[in-house]
Amino acid sequence: MLELYTDRLKIRSLQRADWQVFLSIHQDLELNQFVRRPDSIQAISDKFEARLLPWLFDSGDWLTLTIEEIDTGNIIGFTGLYASNVDLGHAEVGYMLSQAGQGQGYATESLAAVIDWASLSHQVHKFIGLCATENRASVRVLEKCGFQLEGVLRHNYRIDDRWIDDCCFGLLTHERAL
């Protein structure tokens, strides 16, 4: 079981007891407005079950980690990564926090911990972050973690009848703040 700690957070392997928070976050329309149309409960359950399985860096699967407040034990969201290109040492990062966990620096703090761990444990050369251009909060998280905007992917995906442009951010491991 993976456990990472920051001053305020415990970032740990996903557990079966995390299901209700996982479901709630994946069904929240506002949280998902820049990501996807919320899936069916069955699809979310299938995703959850897949992410409970043992993870290997080169599997091509997402490592999903639960973010807990140390003081309260409250689960405030999820973060993680997957090896988008093992040969090049590229890993895409992601995070999604509940409404209660937003605006307190938790996404930045947890992402920085995941980046440090992955840099040391898996020799990641480059981290990649994608987020909708309209998602200013997510853009700020990536920038605070040292990511640089590398481009905009116009009309990269669609949610209902709305095309979404994605910002493509990159962080080379040697550029990360220590």
UniProtKB/TrEMBL annotation:
InterPro entries: Acyl_CoA_acyltransferase, GNAT_dom, N-acetyltransferase. The gene is rimJ. Gene3D superfamilies: 3.40.630.30. This is N-acetyltransferase GCN5. PROSITE patterns: GNAT. SUPFAM superfamilies: Acyl-CoA N-acyltransferases (Nat). Residues 9-168 form the N-acetyltransferase domain. Coiled coil: none annotated.
